[in-house]
């Protein structure tokens, strides 16, 4: 369970081409006073379902801006407020999101001293040409250096990546994923680039200088990214932006592959490809295929609206598709 506080672009010295934090960055007030802060933490913890021991999992997180770009005194004030809940056992940890070029040794030491245990780095890409075209204001080398500093201090690292950035042909994104996997982070967040109203990218889109990914292309790229990271043992923490009322509202997204259940689409596509590989070379025409699927994966295997089932039936000319829930390896038989 994450208790999120959104900084609304505070601490950011750069305006990235794709950014509009008023749309994507949450709705907390710009100044996080003590009454608001502690009240929100208590409300989140109280809303956890009974019996799920939320205190063992809950973390306070600072998102939607550049935490270590804030003045040191402001960082310390926020961390002290979070630390009160850490010290009394109400939460298990503190995490912050920041830029890779704002993680000097003294920044890392400050975070560690105040009990931060996870740092999420907005890398977005590890290809310098893509970073420059996106107006990021940092280089790929900054990501490598920042990750090493955090790892030496024993802090967990989550890396954020984006598919479909300006100057990225898809291959650069997958190269970024491979380079990220080699850094050994504790997790990765990925989302496709959206054209948000009011962002610099919106003007490029409206003038025909930028073409966003289609939804199928974004899903396929993220499916491939998932496979790369899975082979390296690096989990994906999230796929796609968190759906909010603002993001889903009229006129917020001008273009790009926005879908409120983007992660589910990627999981479904991954199961579809895995199933096709399993069936390769088998003559299944007119037969019934029975798939033994782990219970927790049945929804992803079926796909939204049972789209994978229908796809397999048509593609393999099956008479029917049946699913049996079973733990263990994914496999099938026919009758």
In angstroms, what is the radius of gyration? 22 Å
Number of strands: 12
CATH architecture assignment name of the largest domain: Alpha-Beta Barrel
Largest β sheet strand count, sense and barrel closure:
7 strands, parallel
How much β-strand is present in the residues? 15-25%
Secondary-structure-based class equals alpha/beta
Strand arrangement, major sheet: 1-2-3-4-5-6-8
CATH C-level of the largest domain = Alpha Beta
Low-pLDDT sequence parts: none
Give the fraction of residues assigned to helices: 40-55%
Describe the overall structure.
The chain is of the alpha/beta class. The chain has 2 domains: 2-260, Alpha-Beta Barrel (TIM Barrel), CATH 3.20.20.70; 280-334, no CATH class. Helices cover 40% and strands 19% of the residues. The chain has 13 helices and 12 strands. The protein has helices spanning 21-24, 34-47, 72-87, 105-113, 128-133, 140-152, 171-183, 200-206, 215-231, 245-248, 262-279, 298-302, 307-315, and strands at residues 2-6, 59-63, 93-98, 116-124, 156-163, 187-192, 195-196, 236-239, 253-255, 288-293, 320-325, 331-334. Helix 4 links the parallel strand 3 and strand 4 (116-124). Helix 7 runs parallel beside helix 9 and helix 9 (215-231) crosses helix 11. The radius of gyration is 22 Å and the shape is globular.
